[in-house]
Specification:
alpha/beta; TIM Barrel; 8-stranded mixed beta sheet; 8 strands; about 15% strand
């Protein structure tokens, strides 16, 4: 079943096809992404600041590639490892429990790195056996322009994984269709009030649902959804998310139900988030997923 599900990704890994960015006009995409920075609406917040003139929106990201880590990652889903993972500083959300904070939410803590240098690292990773380049963060969305420039320097046929919170705009989604091989999308909240209270974000559920539907429509790419289960957010978020997925994306969609939550960053300010999940909670979610008939659950927990 897994091989059938990842038919596009596996075809690239076996050399039967090229990653999408190899057959698209990257110069044109770079130009389009740059034009969006003049009145930025890469994410669903649509701050409309002119980042080309130094104005900063909610994410505080400028036009430089700022990263806080690049390494071969072995903690992703089994089919994705080893993964050449690039962590961009800054995010379009502000999760009270972010495990990569503060670098993930403060762009100035990231190291300014030339796109060509990052591309050379990706090519090296390809040579030593990494299965993909994994653009993550923080959040990769504010760096769409930089990521396209990075790919323009890449010589290797490395599949592209877009590892995102899913809170990006329709205009960004249209560009992603041109170069993303695997959508790795978080679906954190089904309840709007939970999203606002815990991640300071509006219209999150609707934006992510819209983007997941569009990702599923992309027949030249594959989709994997991560659901981080939060303590006491079983009935308001985890279960409704699973039900929506089964009803709208089908029962074969690849899903990773994560039980790895632990208190971090500012979670001590949120009463229910000061502890880890208990066995009863995660078992309840897993049982519900099986009851819905969801057939393609990741068996391995991410570290």
């Amino acid at each position: 079943m897994l091989e059938d599900y990842y038919k596009n990704y596996l075809a690239i890994l076996t050399g039967k096809k090229k990653p999408k960015f190899k057959s698209v006009n990257l110069k044109q995409l770079i130009k389009k992404a740059k034009s969006l920075l003049a009145s930025c609406e890469l994410c669903e917040r649509k701050c409309k600041v002119n980042r080309l003139k130094g104005q900063l929106g909610f994410c505080k990201v400028d036009t430089k590639a700022r990263i806080f880590g690049m390494h071969t990652h072995y903690g992703e889903e089994p089919e994705l490892i080893p993964s050449a993972t690039i962590f961009f500083a800054g995010c379009t959300m502000l999760c009270k429990y972010c495990q990569n904070a503060p670098e993930s939410v403060i762009p100035s803590l990231g190291k300014v790195t030339k796109e060509k240098e990052i591309a050379e690292w990706i090519d090296y990773q390809y040579a030593i056996g990494s299965k993909n380049v994994n653009f993550v963060g923080g959040e990769p969305t504010p760096y769409l322009y930089n990521i396209l420039k990075i790919l323009s320097f890449c010589k290797s046929d490395m599949p592209v994984v877009w590892n995102s919170n899913g809170y990006y705009s329709k205009k960004t989604a249209e560009i992603l269709k041109k170069f993303v091989d695997v959508y790795l999308i978080d679906f954190r909240y089904y309840n709007e009030s939970c999203a606002k209270r815990l991640s300071f974000v509006e219209n999150y559920p609707e934006a992510v649902k819209r983007n997941l539907i569009e990702a599923k429509k992309d027949k030249k790419a594959d989709l994997l959804i991560r659901i981080l289960v939060l303590p006491e957010h079983i009935n308001c978020d985890a279960k409704p998310i699973l039900k929506w997925i089964a009803s709208n994306l089908g029962r074969n969609v690849r899903i990773n139900i994560l039980n790895q939550y632990y208190p971090a960053f500012e979670s001590t300010k949120i009463p229910e988030l000061t502890r880890r999940l208990n066995k009863k909670e995660i078992q309840e979610v897993l049982s519900y997923a099986k009851k819905l008939g969801l057939k393609n659950l990741v068996k391995k927990e991410i570290i």
